Amino acid sequence: MAFAHTCSVALLGVDGVVVEVQADLEPGVAAFTLVGLPDKALSEARDRVRAAVVNSGESWPQRKLTVGLSPASVPKSGSGFDLAVACAVLAAAERLDPAAIADLLIVGELGLDGRVRPVRGVLPAVLAAADAGYRQVVVPEQTASEAALVPGISVLGVRSLRRLIAVLTGDPPPDEPDDRTAPGRPDPMMAGLTLPGVGARGLTGERTHHLDMADVAGQYEARRALEIAAAGGHHLYLKGPPGAGKTMLAERLPGLLPPLRPKEALEVTAVHSVAGLLPPGRPLIDTAPYCAPHHSTTMPAIIGGGSGLPRPGAVSLAHRGVLFLDEAPEFPVRVLDALRQPLESGEVIVARSAGSLRLPARFLLLLAANPCPCGRYSRRGEGCACTPAMVSRYQGRLSGPLLDRVDLQVEVEPVTRVQLLDRDTTAETTATVAARVLAARGRAAARLADTPWHGNAEVPGHELRTRWRLAPGALDDAEREMQRGLLTARGLDRVLRVAWTVADLAGRDRPNRTDIRTALVLRTGVHRGLPLPTP
């Protein structure tokens, strides 16, 4: 009997589980048995591995072969185990030294010709390997830069099984032509890294770079709300007629957010790697993502799910970034109400018959909606043909519990002719506003340095009411709103969070009554004769 083992990784959402790949050869009729709860794609590895080994110039053992994937109770899917299975088989057949692969973690798909094809989820796989104590990993050459993002890990990127065998045996590397750079020729090896049609669209880095806040005509209150949302991570609801600039404002919000911290960048990159959405040639996503699904998108595409083990949805693709729901009342009510849990906890727990898993979902929610089905409803009642029942039913699609979790609720008025046609030389650019946002986040980070929270929007209300004191009399207006029943307990906590952000933007060490009033105006949309203070 001959035996060898190595390791690979099974992905459960964006979390990895180290799997031991064992190969056992015994006398008997030639057969290949794969055990350990594999899915269909993994079961087909038997044919892929056999063809890849033979086409790499190696002999396939003509004995009874059993390959086990342990722990057997963990569901395993995908083709990323191919390379580990091939190495374990060759080591059991004494073509490789079993000790040479015992401490390696190997990830990669094999083509029938022996080439190693890239797979999705390499970064979370290597992160799981590092957490388990592994220090050497073997990955496809195309994803070596992604794997190298994990500190303390030695990465070997291989192009073919033949080259990996040469490295492990100390033989000279084989002479393999590299035709990937042939002009005008697509690289079929990269096809498995991207998944078109995930039900969500985003902004490319190049397009985000050209979106400037100075392009927005008027909308000073909405621009101010956008700045506060970016500085504190507060959710925002923009309501106004078509053409007022709601989508323009939303697309410029990611440009106001500061660059991701190293840990956050790894989290975001891991989600996009599993989803097959990593930008070509960009192994690390260090800017806030932007996800804007269409209102016809299904529940699994928004929250996460699908057949078999769940996959990341739009709320996870927007992790540490912006989730923009345009025409929010047009989304199914079930989808909108399902957002309530991730808005509070920052994660999604998806349970399916194949298993349950946790997906990160700490995003900044931006809702945009028309005031009525025709979009022309206003306090003046001009031009709207909708009945009161139609308006009430349309606005009621955004439930009270959902809106109660949205810190900033701003009415966007139509742009006037003067605002649209006259050049506003005082309009601030994205860079100017982003600098203020970065400074405000720095003040908040210094205040929260000894706490588990990183921004004002994450701080529990109890801590805000007891740990950090406000200026005397600052809460008078908010207490009056609670007595009138216009502000809930959760609403008061969110007013406090926004007030701290307003104070951070103004450079004050604690909120005063003006900051609380500003937060109340942005929370309720009712000015009561109070102008929105400017920074």
From TrEMBL:
SUPFAM superfamilies linked: P-loop containing nucleoside triphosphate hydrolases, Ribosomal protein S5 domain 2-like
PANTHER family in UniProt: COMPETENCE PROTEIN COMM, MAGNESIUM-CHELATASE SUBUNIT CHLI
- Drop me one GO molecular function for this one: ATP binding
The name of this protein is: ATP-binding protein
Native species: Peterkaempfera bronchialis
Task: Establish whether keyword Nucleotide-binding is in the entry.
Answer: yes
Q: Does the keyword Hydrolase apply?
A: no
Q: Where is this region: Disordered?
A: 168-188
Per UniProt, residues of the AAA+ ATPase domain are: 232-416
Under the heading NCBIfam families, the entry gives:
YifB family Mg chelatase-like AAA ATPase (TIGR00368)
Concerning Pfam families, the annotation shows: ChlI (PF13541), Mg_chelatase (PF01078), Mg_chelatase_C (PF13335)
* Family per record: Belongs to the Mg-chelatase subunits D/I family. ComM subfamily.
Q: Which UniProt keywords apply?
A: ATP-binding, Nucleotide-binding
